Amino acid sequence: MQAIILGSAAGGGVPQWNCRCPICAMAWAGDRRVLPRTQSSLAVSPDGERWLLVNASPDIRQQVFATPALHPRRSLRHSPVEAVLLTNGDVDHVAGLLTLREGQPFRLHATRSILDSITANRVFDVMAADVVARSEVALDEPFWPVPGLSVTLFAVPGKVPLWLEDGTPEIGAETETTVGAMIAANGRRLAYVPGCARVTDGLKRRLSGVDALLFDGTVLADDDLIRAGVGTKTGWRMGHVPMTGEGGAIAALADVDLGRRIFVHINNTNPVLVEASPARREVEAAGWTVAHDGLTLSL
Q1: What is the pLDDT of residues 259-296, one digit of tens each?
Q2: Domain range list for the chain
Q3: What's this model's pTM, rounded to 2 decimal places?
Q4: pLDDT value of position 169
Q5: Coiled-coil stretches, from where to where (predicted)?
Q6: 2-291 has which CATH code?
């Protein structure tokens, strides 16, 4: 199984187009300690020929261009991408569907709740129903979006997408609106959880024994955005468990049997984006890798 992290940043990417927080300012200045990153997306294949996209980033065209494995190779119109899977309805995970509208057949997989949010917004009708089939996926039941690649979706603590919030959202509920994906091929397993509000005992049991975990790394500490002076929401309010601190991902998953531990979906205010920084060293000392665009895994 091959996996390519197409986009390793949270919504807005790095640098964010209108941001001069300390980290974005470094990126705008070309400081090599901060690599530019596009918005969250993953490509997975059992054989390097047929690919599944997990989440459709607004940056998907740029990501395909930067990834030779996803370039068209046959006839006038072709794509190695045979299916797209959505793990939630966040803008940074669904807006790229509007780019994948050029008459290219593929199948779109998601839970009923996520599909309903797509169907309710008619702009997504640009993906013609006779070209892009929509396939409802039940939780905890394996399916095969690409031959040789098994995927099982499971609920993780999360919240509804920001654009669907109505009043005060319930945060931390385990529903169909935020899911993780257990992806398997050739006896190897990869777990992809780009959004998670807290680490539960049930989630730890689910993840135990995987060969690689790609996990929500939106914020280092719960108050990242507040410290950076660019927002008032905490990580918890956004539905993202912090990397560090009590109940954070590093501590909560420390006793879980895992192969590679990789943080993805990293917000532009997260100090781990600065290479060789104290925050980066802390995370790496705990056994975690901070993802970058193009990071490739062969399992």
Answers
A1: 999 999 999 999 999 999 999 999 999 999 999 999 99
A2: 2-291
A3: 0.93
A4: 65
A5: none
A6: 3.60.15.10
